[in-house]
Write a structure and sequence with these properties.
By secondary structure, this protein is α+β, with helices and mostly antiparallel strands. 29% of the residues lie in helices and 37% in strands. Helix 2 runs antiparallel to helix 3. The protein starts with a helix and ends in an 8-residue tail after the last strand.
């Protein structure tokens, strides 16, 4: 019986020893070798992203300028067209007739001018010879002036008819891409229609619009050299555009416009960056994110690898004068490269652990300066 008791005690002792070896409490044992840094406040470059929308340099609504039946459509949706290219044809029969009538009226008016001139030429010598009264010459001249005026009116009607006839050929005002076709051939179209025939976007250069807060705008403006906003924009560094799928557009843009006022509700101001788009990769209506760089003054930065995330909170291990490590919660304001920028939680001169955190718990004695072998 006694021997069995000793055997049970021995088994329990071995089991407790094994459990203890798996969970070492190193608060009073040998110091754990770690690497540490002393943090300090410095200026840091930070990058922020802002939702953005893309618009063509010129976005045009293509509308008819005359009433009529849409006779022909010469382009397809999404096609690239050049300035002056024929897009649509409105039936022109009515406008050809108007031109013919106006031309006939002009010929009649020109004939009336000739007759009036003949009358003046006939009456003038008779007046000079005192055969007829001077009043007849004045009347002849008035009739001539009226004939000339009617001729000008007729010429204006011809010009107007020519313009309307030309409007039946609807051409591209700029180079660009055709949007959705809103009308079908055979449809009656008019200038007052709610829907345009289509849209046309000139996108060799695109404008990207985004908004930033007032404080960020002031920081951006103060960071740029120059006395006026125009001078500052000339000195602004290039910006990047992140498009769908988190890919970065291959060409950089330039901020070239700032809206004249802040939005009352959001307190933000709209900026515009222009990007070359010779390959047509961007289209009107695209969305993305503009990446801007700022200089944040006097901010503490710590490596992201020196932090721990526990239940949506971020911690670092600080080391006190007794070489003991304790977890400390930090609040970050942004990122700069591979570093977190600290808003709250750390002060200049504090020491934090950068490697070996996995061996630590609050109160662990550490030995700074020694490297910890990386786990394989």
């Amino acid at each position: 019986m006694t021997s069995k008791l000793y055997l049970y005690l021995a088994i329990i002792t071995v089991w407790l020893s094994a459990c203890t070896s798996k969970h070492p409490e190193n608060t009073t044992g040998a110091a754990v070798p770690v690497s540490i840094i002393t943090v300090s406040a410095n200026d840091a470059n930070i990058y922020k992203e802002y939702p953005a929308t893309v618009e063509g340099e010129t976005d045009v609504q293509i509308r008819t300028q005359v009433n009529g039946i849409l006779e022909k459509i010469y382009v397809d949706e999404g096609a690239y067209v050049t300035k002056g290219q024929l897009l649509f044809k409105v039936n022109d029969q009515e406008y050809k007739e108007q031109l013919n009538n106006a031309s006939a009226e002009l010929l009649a008016a020109q004939a009336a001018v000739s007759n009036a001139q003949l009358e003046v030429d006939k009456v003038r010598p008779l007046v000079e010879s005192k055969v007829v009264a001077p009043m007849q010459l004045q009347t002849a001249r008035s009739n001539y002036d009226m004939a000339v005026a009617r001729e000008k009116q007729a010429a204006a009607r011809v010009a107007d008819a020519n313009i309307k006839l030309a409007y039946t050929n609807i051409k591209a005002p700029v180079n660009g891409y055709i949007g959705r076709l809103n009308k079908k051939a055979g449809t009656l179209v008019a200038p007052a229609d709610a829907d345009a025939l289509t849209g046309l976007s000139a996108i060799d250069m695109v404008h990207v619009y985004f908004s930033i807060g007032e404080q960020e705008f002031v920081a951006l403006k103060n960071a740029l050299p120059g006395a006026t906003l125009t001078e500052k924009l000339r000195q602004a560094p290039p910006v990047s555009l992140q498009v769908a799928g988190d890919s970065v557009y291959p060409q950089q843009g330039k901020i070239d416009m700032v809206n004249g006022s802040f939005e009352k509700n959001s307190g933000a101001i709209t900026l515009r960056a222009s990007f070359p788009n010779t390959q047509g990769l961007l289209r009107s209506g695209n969305t993305g994110k503009i990446k801007l760089s700022f200089v944040q003054e006097s901010v503490i930065a710590v490596p992201q690898t020196a932090t721990l995330e526990i239940q949506d909170k971020i911690f670092v291990y600080t080391v006190n004068d007794s070489s003991k490590a304790y977890k400390k919660s930090i609040t970050i304001s942004g990122k700069s490269g591979n570093n977190y920028l600290i808003r709250e939680g750390l002060h200049s001169g504090e020491k934090i652990v950068t490697t070996g955190m996995e061996l630590l718990q609050d109160g662990t004695l550490v030995q700074p300066g020694k490297s910890v072998a990386q786990k394989q």
